Amino acid sequence: MLWNVTTVEYLNSGHLGCPGCGASLSMRHALKALGEKTVVVIPACCWSIIAGPFPTTALSVPLLHVPFATAAACASGVRRALITKGHQDVQVMVWAGDGGTFDIGFQALSGAADRNEDFIYVCYDNEAYMNTGVQQSSATPCGAWTTTTPGGKDFAYQKKDLIGIVLGHHPAYIATATVSFPEDFYLKFEKARKAHGFTFLHLLAACPPGWKIDSQDSLKVTRLAVDSGVFPLIELNESGELQQTYRPDSPIPVKTYLQSQKRFKDLSDEDIELIQAQAEEKNKKYLPA
Question: Would the pLDDT of 2 be above 70?
């Protein structure tokens, strides 16, 4: 699959993403997977800036900027308008951060999923409100530094289980992915493209300034997230069950992943053990042996 990737670029040079931005890398390859017949709907997020100011855009496909809370509702309208005009072959993709998905845009997301609207909802999750200065979101993991949690996010508030919530809406397809595993990434976008109904892709996208990592380590760190079990790569199969699409040969300790980022530098050994236990419990819940 990977060797059949198009050489056409739908994300042009000159965009305003930071060096090593996982959200920018993900957009580049998502559009390669979906092709030119794609309409992108973006609420307030980093990508509101990355795409460039009106009337210019770094994307070579139609782009609609919408208010923070309305991405899924607007995508529903765009999709229905395209169907009415006979453009059945045009894919609509929401591209939203964790703030516009886990939090502010959640109501519209839930409504679209409940109605089984026929579009792809992509959450590029960098685990905080990065565009406005690295504030905590409900996607921020326990113990992580943000400007609103300078001592680390309170362990009383775990990262929201959005996969479990969306599963409760009975989506046509749901998966997790990260561009640091490109073959898995492309296969899941292809499945989402072919699905009929509401599809949800949860992408882990490293943010070098927000995660306090070197920009050259963006892909390395997200691979550590997968290999440690913090972010398992899963999908909804044809039998309606979650399955793991990548299983590391030798899982690494969660500690290795946490210590790759300075946002976790104040964690104690007890904190790390707790996060390890949380990761194991999550994997046990969705991926029974």
Answer: no
